[in-house]
Structure formats: C-alpha cells, structure tokens
Amino acid sequence: MANLERAPRQILITGGAGFIGANFVHHWCTAYPGDRVVVLDALTYAGNRNNLAGLEGANLRFVEGDICDRALVDSLLQAESIDTLAHFAAESHVDRSILGPGAFVQTNVVGTFTLLEAFRQHWNNAGQPAASRFHHVSTDEVYGSLEADDPGFSETTPYAPNSPYSASKAGSDHLVRAYYHTYGMPTLLTNCSNNYGPYHFPEKLIPLSCINILMGKPLPIYGDGQNIRDWLYVGDHCSALDAVIHRGTPGETYNIGGNNEVKNIDLVQMLCELMNELAPELPVRPAQNLITYVKDRAGHDRRYAIDATKISTELGWTPAETVEGGLRRTVEWYLTHRDWWQPLLSEEYQAYYREVYA
Fold it and tell me: Which residues carry out catalysis?
C-alpha cells in the first residue's frame, strides 16, 4: 500500500508496454496515483500500447522510442526530472535469441549501458540525490541450470548463462553492478523466475498453450516435458519490485521467486484441465489430446528454482499467489480478452511459430 508520508516520485519505466512492464505500470499507477510516470517503449512485436489502455493522462506520459537512443533518454531524464528508473526493456525469448542473437546483445547489453550512462550523468548533474534509484529487472536464467536435488539460486550463485538471451542479461547485470561499485550510483538489481499472467505475448508457454487450446491447435512440449520452472505470478513480481525500489539497499541484488516449481508437462496438463472446466465449447475435448512432443530446444536448461530468503528476510516480501490460483486467473483473462490476443497472431508470428516448432 502507498505510504501517505512518502514523497512523490518521477519514474521512468522502460519497456512499459511489454508484459511485465505493463503490469508494473498498472501496479504503480494504482498504488501511487500522485507520481509522475513516463513510459518509454520501442513497441517491437512484444510491446503493445493497448496494454496501457485507460492509464494515459495527466500523470502518465507514453513515449515511443529506443533505449539505445541516448539523446532521447537524456531529454526525458532532464525534462521530467526523473529520480527513479525501472528498467524492463529487453529482448526476452530464448527461442528468438537462438535464431537471432544480435538483437539481444544490442537491446540487453548496449541498451542497458546507454541507460546507465544517461542516468549517471543526470544523477551527477542533480547533485547525486540519495533518493534516486536505478532498478534493473533481470532473470534467474543468468545462473544456468540446476540438477534435481540442487538448492535454489541465491544471490551468491555464480553466473553460468547457457543461451544468447541469458548471456546478454548476464552482461547487463554485470554492468549494473559495476556502476554501483565504480561510480556509487544507487542501483538495484532483481533476478526473477518465470512470470505469467495478463498481457503475456503468445510466444511464451502459458499464453501459447491457452491460445492453442482455444484454437484447437497442437500444444508443443519440448523434449520429454520434464524441465522444471519456478512460476511467479506477475502481480506478485510487481509487488516485490515495489518493495525493492522503496526499501532495498542500493548496490544489492534480490532474487524473486514464486515458490512454485512445476514440470512443463504438468503445467500444460493443469492448463488443459482449467480449459476443460472454463471453456465448454473447445474445438478439441479434452484439451489434453492436443499435447504434442517436439524436438528439444538447443541448450535447454533442465531446472530453475529461486531461493527468495533474502527479499523475505530483509524486505518482508513473499508471494501471495499459488500456481493453481494464478493459472486460473490467467486462463480466465485469456478467455475474456480475445480482442487483445487475436490481433497478435499475425503472419510474422505464424512464420516464427512454424520455424521454431516445425
């Protein structure tokens, strides 16, 4: 909840029209209606201005642009007197990073460097105010893969990225750390597990499964389906980021997890059961008949798990949503928002889908 004694912030949110970013914008505008919010998004295939419908107005400004555009970033920081930067903008899909890694290096490494440099200059020009924050949102994939009995990733787990995507995020994480230790810039870094929820572009497992079930299309499962992920409802992630920005210690890293480890095949089975229950006119019933195993992804990490002890102990945050409750909310959202996802199934998306799952 908002602190009535809290000073208003001027926050720049990069990637705020994407999945996690848009959910965070909704969270922030609801929790802190007196804050000035500026959203910077390049509106690539995964960015959708409709994700911010109803929010744009006196206190929220949307700017279409690239985080690699230093002049644009400089002008926004100065004109809006930004004191807080929440950095979500990223290329984030492993499959796409395998097909074309260059865009991931450009956005995730060069883009983060551009933001850091611009914020450092802005922070210095403002007299290095203590309340300023640069929050970089990253992923647990930078830690690599776990064996079945390994403990979850902690903030001290060595980095071992296995895909061009995770390697590019690891590079950006190291830059953020360096700007704190070299320049004293008030950075914060969070590494989260797999998010799910509203506004999720249909290339990812959960929205892809929901939409394919509704369309009667195969449900592609990589390899043997035994890969394990820790699933974090996006609303819980947003509340954790809020806690870190307001109460986190500059220079620190906080891991954010959902405490919900599930095998991919079990997750899809759960989605099928929910669809069988909530969508009576499915083209194929039961939806489990659509499950199809496909060739495994190159460099596919076997298991991710997060040890979120630090954020729980130091900041008092724990996830509120179970995977069963979060999946039900998510399925209900996709059932009632066909007008949101149907336009996303473009020919470009279909071509990408065929290339990945052929």
Answer: 140-141, 165
